[in-house]
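To whoever is on call:

I kicked off a structure prediction for a single chain this morning and the downstream step that reads the tokens threw a length-mismatch warning. I double-checked the sequence; it's 396 residues and nothing unusual in it as far as I can see. Pasting both halves so you can look.
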Amino acid sequence: MISENTNSTKIKEQSSASGQYKGGLILALSFTHFLHDIYSSFLAPLLPLLIKKLSMSLSEAGFLSTVMQIPALLNPYIGKIADRVSVRLFIVLAPGLTGASMSLIGIAPNYAVLLVLLLVAGISVSLFHVPAPVMVSRVSGAKMGMGMSYFMTGGELARTLGPLAAVGAVSVFGLEGFYPVMIVGLAASGWLFLKFRDVSITIENPEDTSIRKTWREMRFILLPLAGILVARGFMHASMAAFLPTFIKEETGNLWLGGTALTLFEFSGVVGVMSAGSLSDHFGRRKVLLVSLLAAPFMLFLFVWLRSWLRFIALMFTGLSILSTTPVMLALVQEHAKGSPSAANGFFMMISFLARSAIVVVVGFLGDLVGLRNTYLISSFLGVLGIPLIFALPKDK
């Protein structure tokens, strides 16, 4: 670790555009992203069982998710440490650490121990997600958008299958007996170590770049992206958090609401897989522009239409709303200088804060004017992100 840090201050970082696209390593990162995020999605489906076991109130249960997400506020600092110590080390350790901590929540003897386990898991989640896009950018060559797309696809699939994996494990082993599933996470860490042990990830003079300097260097791109994240966030929160409720109110069919959410998420996977590659060929700003033009219009059509065409609009809504993340990650890494992990940490912190706050606002609007009107308002607010695209740097 020390030698890697020493070398990183001496060896000039190679431009990502000059390297080769290493498809095998990208797929390894995507698959590990999938395994890692399956573990991090265990809490929600197992929460009813944990409430019963530990006799928690709903307030105590709600605080569990908050504790797990608190480390996201430290993402820039975690990124800075990763750049100084070892990007590779953080990524290798995270799947095993997240897998172990989340697999032990079923045997937590009390609320305090459960909080500690979830806090460790939250830190581990940041240890993986903050430096991982840096690793992706280094092994993607000139196809950084494609690399980000494949990497993010793993996470999107885990969001869909994670709850099923958690419920399946508990069904077989019981809440207090499913902890052996951590073996998969530990094995993933070992596999990543072997897979990337000969991959050189060097950061030029990371000790010369403070967190404040990283912000000053990156704010020209982070500030417009923050505005875009907020504008997109209203559409995303409306669909991801309240879609089954909206469909239930409109049709009275809860099963149809769950199906609609699955369709929305699956369409997002398709969007994530394609958007990054398209941005490599047509430019980041153009792909973001098309996505943010399409998303508000399709969300409006989804609310307005009453026939089966509504679900066609739903698919294109998911395709456009969820496809922007790999493009934005590629933008951040293209312009990051001395501390790329810290730059990505800022982006992820902004994304976390925007997402967390906007869900509350959308819920308040739903109570105030109804979900149907909230969806229409969200589509209008989504349009406000379009001018911010032109504040982003021109495509290289």
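Update from on-call: the warning came from a stale cache, not from the record. Cleared it. Sanity check on the structure: Residues 2-7+19-201 form a domain with the Growth Hormone; Chain: A; fold (CATH 1.20.1250.20).
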